[in-house]
Write a structure and sequence with these properties.
heterodimer; A: alpha+beta; 6-stranded antiparallel β-sheet; 57% helix; B: alpha/beta; 5-stranded parallel β-sheet; 5 helices; 5 strands
Amino acid sequence: MGRTNDTPGTGAPPSRPAERHERDLKSVNTKLRDLIASLEGQRQQYQRRRAEGTSPEPAPAAPEAEDLEKRRLQSELALAREALDQRSKEEERLRERLQEIEREHRRICDDYVVVEERNTDLASLFVALSRLHGTLERNEVMAAIQEIVTNIVGSEEMAVYELAAGSKELEPAWTFGVDGAHLPRIRVGEGVIGRVAAAGEPFVAWERTCAEEPALTACIPLKVGERVTGALAIYHLLGHKAVLGNLDRQIFDLLGAHAGAALYFTALHQRHGFGAG
Amino acid sequence: MNRKKILLVDDSSTVLLMERMILSKSPYDLVTARDGWEGVEKAKAERPDLILMDVVMPRMDGFEACRRLRADDETRQIPVIMVTTRGELQSVESGYESGCSDYVTKPINGLELLSKVRNYLGE
């Protein structure tokens, strides 16, 4: 940042151009005011004398003095105009700088919003992963899946299906917000959920509802490596959650890759006798 | 400088962890409680500057906890932000009737939460 000093060598503090111009203008203004006051005084004096008849005709001013006064006034007027002009230019420059700073401020605000959103997304993914792998108890993993779907995706209706041992059928293993007793077993390859389990690819009703299963918002295959072990069906979203977003896609990917593994680990843990007690 | 204290009341570990992650960027002291009952007790003991309160919780829900906080001279002035999955108007009205200062909906939007927290902490 450049700084100017009005009175070099005097040790006076540096002042800004706007302040300097304001001071110049004030000085010119004071001089003009003095001049006007002086002229006004002369006029009144002249009128008074004329009324009294003491001086019917003013003595003509010497041409040199009149010319000198005229030039002095012209010079002061030019100075005042110059100061005014400089001040206008400075104002214009400051206005442009202000607009520039406002644009920069808006850009930084926009960037901040993007960064904060990304932070929240990363925090959500971290939380989801921590919750899934933070326990080897089956019920806690199921509760973690439910909490992730409720609090991060935004749905209070879901069902976790698992492949029944030795069969090609999916059976409801955990439900939340839907009546599990009325959910049927599903053959792999049949219906939306069955096809998700067969293909190992998620189904997401991004823009329109699924005609085959209108209540279904998303179905994610639960995998251990490449092997599908079940499916997570997510039904209606919360009323205030209008659409699924980019974070939801990432959460679905994470659930697909880690929820199945987390459930598998709980089974291994149980099978090897490390369960409760 | 005194660090502001925030009491987080929620029975969900996921939500508590999320709130911790979002608020950890600012220098707050965070205290947690797992239900409304514990929330009221912690509010009296810890005297937080702000409370984030879940609605549906075991033992005592967020609305009742908020009513009790408002009925107690020691905790009457503490702002309470309800954190709820129930964004519907009726739930919001119940929240305000119980004396809550504001509400945010789950899934939590980090910016919205931070903005409201800073607002109520006068930052």
